[in-house]
TrEMBL record:
Heat-inducible transcription repressor HrcA C-terminal domain boundaries: 115-337
Species of provenance: Roseivivax marinus
HAMAP family recorded: HrcA
Function recorded in the entry: Negative regulator of class I heat shock genes (grpE-dnaK-dnaJ and groELS operons). Prevents heat-shock induction of these operons.
GO-annotated biological processes: negative regulation of DNA-templated transcription
Domain of life: Bacteria
Transcription is among the record's keywords: yes
InterPro entries to which the protein is assigned, alphabetical: GAF-like_dom_sf, HrcA, HrcA_C, WH-like_DNA-bd_sf, WH_DNA-bd_sf, WHTH_transcript_rep_HrcA_IDD
Pfam family, one: HrcA
Keyword annotations from UniProtKB, A to Z: Repressor, Stress response, Transcription, Transcription regulation
Protein name, as recorded: Heat-inducible transcription repressor HrcA
Coiled-coil residue spans: none
Taxonomy of the source species: Bacteria, Pseudomonadati, Pseudomonadota, Alphaproteobacteria, Rhodobacterales
GO MF, one annotated term: DNA binding
Family assignment from sequence similarity: Belongs to the HrcA family.
């Protein structure tokens, strides 16, 4: 919030309570809140006309908006931000939510990929939103690499790590790739790969391509660059974004076709992993849960969605991934925040215990 924005401590008690009741009513029902409704709930007995005057003042400050003439008010994005920062009452994690999240541990916690899939599904289920889980990159040395063509615009890379872990990843190769160029690229990489992690290998591949450009044809060189970029993403960003519960957003009551198109575009972008770097950067300014409302982050500026996100850390207290929930701006933030916080702690503990 900018210094020029209105502040809660500048409001009198009546104005603050009207503002809080409007926002809470909207978050609960998704409907505008009118002055007559507030006269029945305010602690101070005042007339509907007095409440309307207060609401008009809040609208002038940019905190409330009137979607229709003579209708009630709804909070603006600025109003939601002020509410979240100053008036939000975060609840205790409910026992049912805790049990659903704890159940993701299951019996096979050695399978981190399976665990993170279960976490994403559970997080989506308990929040009725869409969940995002950004998994940590696998840092074991690589033993073998193989490319498999899946069509003109899709290819699969199979990564076999020295600890037995196997990952299959789909990426878009450079145009004109052939089975022979893929074999040549795989042979080139396998000659360099032994004992190196993805991050280390990517640096060496860059150097090797520059030094030995004449030893491989241009198509194979493009494939190496495309493939390694898709795996390591500059050697800093984890590679796998798990999206669960997309239907929870697409099935929102009252969502118009234009809103649904924006939500579909958002998830198409996420599933193509264009903004994984930005997603992780949201969490890297500190520990704990962060809330992004509407256009506060470019990931969600078009869809008008909110994101509640928290990083999780390894045993060295290094941020290695994140979990989050996407939903409409009228999310039940007080309930969602402890759920996301607990989920991040759960994932961090399991990964720390394994390491």
């Amino acid at each position: 919030m900018t210094d020029a924005a209105p502040k809660l401590d500048h409001m009198n008690d009546r104005t603050r309570e009207v503002f809080r009741r409007v926002v809470e009513g909207y978050l609960e029902t998704g409907e505008p809140v009118g002055s007559r409704t507030l006269t029945r709930t305010l602690s101070e007995k005042v007339s509907a006309a007095t409440i309307r005057n207060v609401m008009q003042d809040l609208e002038y400050l940019g905190l409330l908006d009137s979607p229709h003439i003579s209708a009630g008010r709804v909070p603006t994005q600025l109003g939601l931000r002020m509410f979240v920062d100053g008036l939000l009452e975060v609840r205790e994690l409910g026992p049912g939510d805790r049990e659903a999240l704890d159940a993701t541990l299951g019996s096979n916690t050695d399978d981190v990929s399976g665990f993170l899939d279960r976490v994403g599904s559970a997080l989506s289920g308990v929040t009725q939103g869409a969940s995002l889980v950004l998994s940590p990159k696998h840092e074991a040395p690589i033993r073998h690499i193989e490319f498999v063509s899946l069509g003109p615009e899709r290819a699969l890379v199979v990564l076999v790590f020295s600890d037995g872990h196997v990952e299959n990843r789909v990426f878009t190769p450079a145009p004109g790739q052939t089975p022979s160029s893929m074999r040549e690229a795989a042979n080139f990489l396998n000659a360099l790969v032994e004992g190196k992690t993805l991050s280390e290998m990517r640096r060496e591949v860059r150097a090797a391509i520059a030094a030995r450009r004449q030893e491989i044809d241009s198509l194979a060189g493009q494939l190496v660059e495309e493939g390694v970029a898709a795996w390591a993403d500059d050697g800093q960003v984890p590679e796998r974004l798990i999206v669960r519960g997309r239907a929870n957003l697409l099935g929102q009551d009252g969502a118009g076709e234009e809103e649904l198109d924006l939500i579909r575009a958002l998830f198409d972008d996420l599933e193509r992993k264009r903004d994984i770097a930005e997603f992780l950067e949201l969490t890297e300014t500190g520990d704990g849960v962060r809330i992004f409302i509407g256009s506060e982050n470019k990931l969600f500026s078009l869809s008008g969605s909110s994101l509640v996100v928290s990083p999780y850390m390894n045993a060295d207290r290094k941020i290695i991934g994140a979990v989050g929930v996407i939903g409409p701006t009228r999310l039940n933030y007080g309930r969602i925040v402890p759920i996301v916080d607990y989920t991040a702690q759960l994932v961090g503990r399991l990964i720390s215990d394994r390491s």
